Each structure stands twice: as C-alpha cells, then as structure tokens.
Amino acid sequence: MRRLLLVAALAACGNDIDLGETMVDAAPEPDPLAVPSTAAPGSLDDIHGRILAKRCSGQPGLCHNGQFEPNLSTPALTYAYLVNRPGIEKPDRLRVAPGDAAKSLFIDKIRNRNGVATQMPLGAEPLADAEVAELEAWIAAGAKRSPDAAPAPVLNNPPRRPQIAVFSPGGARLDNNGPLVVRPGDTIELVHTVSDFETRDADMPFTAVILSLGDGRNIVLTTAPDDGHLGPTTYDAGGPPAQGDVFNFVYSWTVPPDVGIRSDADGSITMQPAAGTTAVLIALYFDQVPTMGGIVAFDVGPTIQIEANP
Questions:
Q1: 300 sits in which H/E element
Q2: CA atoms of 168 and 254, how far apart (whole Å)
Q3: Is 105 left (phi over 0), alpha (psi -120 to 50) or beta?
Q4: What is the rounded CA–CA span in Å between residue 46 and residue 40?
C-alpha cells in the first residue's frame, strides 16, 4: 500500500491520482465563460450580473476579472472559486459557507469585519447595504447556482505544500545557510508541516520524507521490503515553529557509515559508503486515503551532503 502511495505522490502534480483503475470520464461541464441571458431572481447568475460583474470583475482592470483570486469573471467561475473554498488571507474560513453568511469570508471582506486586512471592493465605495443583504440571502438559502439546483457539493480542497527543515535533536535549525553537511554517526531530525482545510494535522493518513539523489535513486531509510526509501514521519504537536505553522511531523535519522541506495527503475538496492553522498530532502503527505479521493501535497527541501569523519 505504501509503495502505491509513493507512486501516486510523485506522479500526481494535480488533484487526480491514478491507482491503475479504469477511470470514467465525467459528464461535460458547462462552459465556465458562458454568461446566461436570463437568470432567476436572487440566483447567483442574477446577483453576478447586477452586482459582482459591475463592482468586482466586469472589465479588465477590476481586481477579480481573472487577475487575482477569487476569479469572479463569470457566474460559473464565481461559484467554483467561492462556494466551499477556503480563503487565502484566512485559510481557516470558507469564502462562502453554504447556509451561513456569518461564517463566510466573502461577506467578512465585503463588510470589513472579523479581522480581515482590507475591505472589498478594494479602493472603491463599499457595496450598498441592500446589495450585501442580497449576497447574504443567497448564502443563507444554500449558496446554490440557481434556486432549483442541487445543494453545493462538499469538496476536498487541496492541501498546502509542506514547509521542510532539518533540526538537531537539541532543537537548533541546521539548514539555514546553503547545503547541510553531516557525517556518519550524526543524528538529524527531518521535519515538515501539513496544512489541510478538511483534515486535522494529527489525522493525516500518510506522511513521509525521502532522501533523493535526483537520478531516480533514493537513500534507504527503513527495513521495509518495498518502501524502505520512505521515512514515515510521526506527529509531534510540540514541534518547532514554521512560517505561520508548526513543524509538527518528524523523522529522526542517524547517518550510517554505509547507505543503501534504491533504484526506482527496478527496486534494486546497492550499498555504498555514506560519505560522498548528496541527497535532496523531499516531504509528502496525503490529506485523505487515496482510494477515498485523497490529494497529495509535496515539496523539495534542503540539500544534505554527507562527508567523511575527520
């Protein structure tokens, strides 16, 4: 299973994860650039044409005509970018929480409340109270695309890329200035963050680090027969601070005198002296089990050089 996870992780740059099953093409989506000529009163299409297009995105030069998130240039794109999507400024809040305007960041930004940095529309007159009330009524009614539409779907929003670092067991950060040099016998802590709207940090189903040589080979970290190149990280709520987050997943590694090098091409493992080996630290995690629609987040961290003991 873990081998499958890694294959999916390194193959998936987007949200789709191919697990070798036959995939059925989804039904064609409506044209996201289409603007209906008629719209039901109080629907998103109606509100978009009368309010959002004129104040937020109606022409190039207005902020949300595709230049900045959220893209409000058409009703379909407005729906896709707002409903059940977390914000950028306040990632702990949904832009539009169906049925609850009081918990919707979109309304926070328009009303300039709950600690937002700026009010929207930026640098322009605020929306009239009646216009805001229409938006709130649309959200309170379920934030549907149209009154007779199905309820807004529950989404699995993509997790954020992990921040990655290397610390000493004593808590000193080691990777601040260029490549990190270590020697056989040294113990280092390979740490990373996780961040997902739907899944608590402690509940992430799969987290790991890889020490990659960059040529399709990786350092063997564990004795797992097929997945020894994956170092499973463990949750540590008391980890060191990261930028707006916490390095709360850790894998402790003691550099051995000799390392196994695993080839992704055929799974073969060869042994070589650790000294002289240079690897790049990669961290990855899934926000849900892949077979249940999980999405992988991964990033590349510092370079680690292993030198001989003096």
A1: strand 296-306
A2: 11
A3: alpha
A4: 6
Structure tokens belonging to residue 250: 């850790």
Distances (CA, A) of 11 to 89, 244, 266, 269: 30, 28, 17, 22
Alpha-carbon gap, residue 151 to 141, rounded angstroms: 10
In three-state secondary structure terms, 144 is coil
Buried-exposed string 108-132: b where 16+ CB fall within 10 A, e elsewhere:
bbbbeeeebeebbbeeeeebeeebb
DSSP letter assigned to residue 127: P
The candidate with the shortest Cα–Cα distance to 8, out of 166, 228, 230, 252, is 230
Contact status, residue 228 vs residue 260, Cβ threshold 8 Å: yes
Tens digits of residue pLDDT in 149-206 = 889 888 899 999 999 999 999 999 999 887 899 999 999 999 999 999 999 999 999 9
What pairs with residue 261 in β-bridges? 219, 270
Polymer length of the chain:
310
pTM of this prediction? 0.79
Question: What residues have CB less than 8 Å from 185, skipping those under 6 apart?
Answer: 254, 255, 257, 309
Helix (H, G, I), strand (E, B) or coil at 252: strand
Instruction: Name residue 198's amino acid.
Output: E
